[in-house]
Amino acid sequence: MHSAAVVGVGETDYAADYAKRRDPAAPRRDAYSYAVAAFTRALRDAGLQRDAIDGLVVGPPLAYERTAEILGLDLDWAATGDHTQAIGLATMALATGAARAVALVYGNDQRSAGLRYGGAATPGAEQFLAYSYFAPWGLTSQGALYALMTQRYREVHGLTDAALAEVALNQRRYAQVTPGAVMTGPLTLDDYLAGPFIVEPLRLYDYCLVNDGGVALVLTTPDRAVGLARPAVEIAAVGRVDGNREATSLRPRLVDFYHPAHRRAAKKLYDAAGVGPEDIRCVQIYDSFSIHVPVALEGFGFFPEGAAEAFLVGGGLRPGGRLAVNTAGGHLSGSYMQGWGHQVEAVRQLRGDAGPRQVPDIEHVLYISDVAGKVTGILYRRAA
Amino acid sequence: MTRLRPVPVANPDDEEFWAYTARGELRLQRCSQCGRLRYPPAPCCPDCLSTTSTWVPVSGRGHLLSWARFHRSYFPGLPVPYLVVVVELAEGPLMVGNLVSAAGAGDADDADPVDGPGELRAGRPVRVAFQRVDLEDGGALTLPQWQFID
Question: Touching check for B6 and chain A: CB below 8 Å?
Fold first, then answer.
């Protein structure tokens, strides 16, 4: 199943834009202006003309109609979706011939807009009732739900502060060698432990950033990907399980750690691609909170269930360790682009463009997202 | 100081739940066709899709499953820190709540979430305790809350 290949990627200047957001004199930018910057960079990276794009998928808060209008796109096909839906939809559109070259475009001005996750107006509660349903007891925010999951994991399997800190510390190391990463100062275990609790047991450094930016990718069919400006990266397989059953009850999160959905998505992905976790050394993981990383790795078979402590303390994420994870710093230190930026990093790693953070001699990069039980694995592979 | 709690999301299926808690009863929807308990309330059974259900009393007994302590304020009427717990009922469903002390349970003036409720340990047995609370919009509600019984 090689129905799509990534031929162009573009991102905005996260760190520079983050600094500008702190300057009250800097002009206000909206989500569309970030999307424009990312799109034009992705197009240039692909070596394509704007009019070669006949399909578009945008990520909220963008609307595709307005995005297409701003970018002057004449389209045969368009849709809206989060980053995993966007890749799935684009892959299907290319496979069916509905489109021949699809731009995936995301822009967000969440920092400038003062967006807050949690409280009376928390984003996402229309889709995920658990974000707001338990407010009379004071329970709100995505982070609190992951705090509950972390505490439950500690009770069942054990997970020390020092083990969980490995996620934030290693991602900070990668951010320090990633151009444009937002948080690049040194971060020690003492710094991590001195970080204030937000919702205990999660601390400041277990939480993602909130910053402005944009991301774009250009996907086309594998035959059309040949001979373009940069090496093509194939989407070798996608495995998805849309786990919504009993979501608000918190049972899939707190009792199952989403593992039934992880295992089903992983099996689809590994079977389709003919690879297993033993073949993979570089993984990008949706990390709105640090706990995502060990739970997702466990669910996708990188270590036995309940063994996160041993994997993390044993240096599984450290330089030279078993896995290189979130090699651009992820959401914790790199940039919070709601999973879109992770796709760009997967492509850069497989092109060999990752500079000092390059993972040597890799054929595959796995991406895992398990937001609120919707588990998607995407396997990227260097085109032959 | 009396805490002012967020108003629950408007959900027609919840009205009976709150009517029972106001009378000191913990009742959940049970599917009339297949017998499945469901919580939060919903318009149909997720197993058999029957839209017929009855509100049956549950034991109000369970055990502590997980917890989290808020240090960041998200609601103006709820000063931090405060503790949120998740309880697994003997009948199976999970319920979110706060821990209340045995002495203050049900008293709207002093039974608010306690910060030092004793040893937090998964599996510790709890029972329901009803607490009348004031809401941000000037209304009031009876919350099912939890106290240790061991």
Answer: yes
Mean pLDDT to the nearest integer, A322-341:
98
Q: Where are the alpha helices (DSSP H) in chain A?
A: 14-21, 31-46, 64-71, 83-96, 142-157, 161-175, 189-194, 222-225, 251-254, 259-273, 292-299, 308-313, 340-351
Q: Which of residues 65-124 of B touch A (CB under 8 A)?
A: 65-72, 74-75, 78, 81-82, 84, 86, 93-94, 96-98, 113, 121-122
Cβ-Cβ pairs closer than 8 A, A with B, add up to 108
Domains of chain A (ranges; CATH) run 5-114+210-225 (3.40.47.10)
Give A 158-217 residues with CB within 8 A of chain B.
196-201
Do B122 and A135 make contact, defined as CB atoms within 8 angstroms?
no
Task: Give the torsion sign (CA, A295, A297, A301, A303).
Answer: negative
Q: How many CB atoms lie within 10 A of CB A32?
A: 21
Are B96 and A139 an interchain contact pair (Cβ–Cβ within 8 Å)? yes
Residues of B in contact with A116 (CB under 8 A): 74
Note the pLDDT tens digit of each residue in B16-71: 999 999 999 999 999 999 999 999 999 999 999 999 999 999 999 999 999 999 99
Which whole number is the average pLDDT over A42-50? 98
Domains annotated for chain B, with CATH where assigned, are 10-57 (no CATH), 59-150 (2.40.50)
Q: Which residues in chain B have their CB less than 8 angstroms from residue A132's CB? A: 9
Q: Decide if A152 and B70 are in contact by the 8 Å CB cutoff.
A: no
Whether A132 and A122 have beta carbons less than 8 Å apart is answered as: yes
Specify the pTM. 0.95
Give A257's Cβ-side CA count (13 Å radius): 23
Q: Over the stretch A65-123, which tens digit does the pLDDT of each residue have?
A: 999 999 999 999 999 999 999 999 999 999 999 999 999 999 999 998 888 888 877 87
| Chain A environment of B86 (Cβ under 8 Å) | 148, 152, 250, 254
Consecutive H or E run containing A213 = strand A213-220
Average pLDDT, chain A: 96
Q: Residue B75 and residue A140: Cβ atoms within 8 Å?
A: yes
How far is A248 from A131, CA to CA, in rounded Å?
A: 8
Nearest to A331 by CA among A182, A196, A166, A188: A182
Who contacts A217 (Cβ-Cβ below 8 Å, separation ≥6)?
A6, A8, A9, A10, A42, A103, A104, A340, A343, A344, A347
Contacts of A356 (CB under 8 A, 6+ apart): A177
What one-letter code names the amino acid at A205?
Answer: Y
